[in-house]
Request: fold
Amino acid sequence: EPEVTQTPSHQVTQMGQEVILRCVPISNHLYFYWYRQILGQKVEFLVSFYNNEISEKSEIFDDQFSVERPDGSNFTLKIRSTKLEDSAMYFCASRPGQGAREQYFGPGTRLTVT
Amino acid sequence: EDQVTQSPEALRLQEGESSSLNCSYTVSGLRGLFWYRQDPGKGPEFLFTLYSAGEEKEKERLKATLTKKESFLHITAPKPEDSATYLCAVPPTFSGGYNKLIFGAGTRLAVHP
Reply:
């Protein structure tokens, strides 16, 4: 069964450093998302991406964040200058298309900012 | 404000003891309610989508139902492997194209042998 994959599973970085989180969505899916979950809190939406552009972003997704689909399979989230409060699990998700509304999530990347 | 509230926060059951989890929502014009299972340190795993009041979906020991303001996840004769956090999510009222989901805080279910 096709799955969303994410790398790395755990990333430790120092405050102020740039990180890139990588995702391979399910093949033939058209909509892509990033969510995050701070330990013990709700899963919260960051950004959605369709047709090679951002379709919606949350207030959390400020100028320090960017997303890219550099090729036909990868989808990345970049944080330019990490802060302590960026420490969280980051989940990538994908959705097939207009007729199917459920999102399929990857296993997550645990980001620890020290 | 769009909200998703789940109760109880935590539930402890004995193996075989059936129960129900609740998800209430305040969005207008519901365009789908989604149930996910999340194991510790893992991503949410899709379980069900419900679209209209009265709809029911089943998968093994789980059955999800939907009314106009809430959804229930019924667990029949649970086993220890059903232990997980169960999340409920909906698209917000004014989000076009199903661009995002609003999640509840989840119910942590522990099933003991």
